[in-house]
Inverse folding.
């Protein structure tokens, strides 16, 4: 039996952090695919706050000339930090509809501030093909969807460029799953941090159940809450093609659903990012529907409750 939640949908049509346009349409694609209806069918209340817009900030430049859209990204970070903090009030469960993964540089600081106010320990489950641990100096592509984890865990190099970070997420509270594409500069930085990185080889060797069990045990021991950040490219592109950063060998349909079902069982998920959906690259809404279906599993749909339909 799932608990009945007050869910808040927050659209974040961020596409300036990615290299390929299209994520701008992501929030409305999730709505069209029936995200709100799926949550309501499980007994949750749903309030859709519409789409955010980025704060207008003074122009800022960085010595790394590869960086794209720095000022606009900082504006999104400022807007989404406050939007996430407000959406988390009064026991609500925010679901952020992306938009590229740069949005997590705003959602996580806001959720971390709300968790601090509640006296709760915040944990992050980062489901992604990439670690997104570049700083502003190390990114070679200049696409700022590759920096959010570095920023929200308090890595140096963001002062004067991104908004001041009020409450960093503890690196030891971040677990990444599905990793299979890491730039050398990110790898060198990550080995110095206590961030847990579970790559696809570990999943192949041990299975998601035992790996997730260890993470959930740490959360339980700390009486913590979990923010899930789900990137489309966590999934294998054969089942989820609508992403501009496809990396072969991702999570299968059942691996992804099992993770969501186990997270629901633990009862500690307090917020969710759904990111990098690019409807322009989708096949008749296939990826959007799958992401909605995974969200339904996270919020209480059981295997025996699944309606018969074609995927």
């Amino acid at each position: 039996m799932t608990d009945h939640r007050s869910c808040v949908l927050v659209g974040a049509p961020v596409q300036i952090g990615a290299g390929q346009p299209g994520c701008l349409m992501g929030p409305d694609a999730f709505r069209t695919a029936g995200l709100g209806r799926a949550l309501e069918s499980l007994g949750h209340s749903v309030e859709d706050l519409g789409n955010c817009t980025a704060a207008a900030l003074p122009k800022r430049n960085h010595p790394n000339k590869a960086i794209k859209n720095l000022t606009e990204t900082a504006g999104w970070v400022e807007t989404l930090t406050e939007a996430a903090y407000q959406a988390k009030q009064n026991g609500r469960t925010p679901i952020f509809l992306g938009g590229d993964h740069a949005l997590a540089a705003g959602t996580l600081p806001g959720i971390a501030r709300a968790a601090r106010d509640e006296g709760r320990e915040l944990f992050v489950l980062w489901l992604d093909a990439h670690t997104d641990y570049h700083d502003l100096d190390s990114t070679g592509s200049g696409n700022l969807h590759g920096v959010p984890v570095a920023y929200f865990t308090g890595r140096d190099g963001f002062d004067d460029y991104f908004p001041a970070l009020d409450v960093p997420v503890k690196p030891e509270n971040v677990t990444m799953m599905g990793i299979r594409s890491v730039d050398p500069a990110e790898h060198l930085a990550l080995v110095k941090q206590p961030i847990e990185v579970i790559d696809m080889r570990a999943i192949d060797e041990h299975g998601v159940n035992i790996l997730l069990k260890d993470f959930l045990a740490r959360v339980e021991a700390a009486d913590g809450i979990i923010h899930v950040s789900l990137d489309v490219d966590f999934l294998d592109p054969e089942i989820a093609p609508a992403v501009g950063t496809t990396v072969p060998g991702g999570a299968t349909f059942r691996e992804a659903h099992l993770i969501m079902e186990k997270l629901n069982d633990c009862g500690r998920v307090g917020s969710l990012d759904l990111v990098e959906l690019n409807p322009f690259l989708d096949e008749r809404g296939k990826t959007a529907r799958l992401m909605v279906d995974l969200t339904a599993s996270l919020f209480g749909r059981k295997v025996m409750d699944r309606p018969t339909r074609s995927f």
